[in-house]
């Protein structure tokens, strides 16, 4: 295990939006082997909500626009997915 001070000193260089973006990318890459467009659509929609609900004091405004884009793309992927 890493000491908490090492993790804290690493995370101080980044904001919450960058951390959420990294988690979104890792979650999307993790769902790719499942080959399900519905899971990717649900992932995009949920992270769109998370990006929109993140307070502006913690993340720059461009993450809000990313959240809006994901909230548009997610349902489109869901509707176009094969059953």
From TrEMBL:
The chain crosses the membrane at residues 12-32, 39-57, 63-81. Keywords: Membrane, Transmembrane, Transmembrane helix. The keyword Thylakoid does not apply. It comes from Haloplanus litoreus. Residues 1-83 form the DUF8006 domain. InterPro entries: DUF8006. This is DUF8006 domain-containing protein. Pfam families: DUF8006.
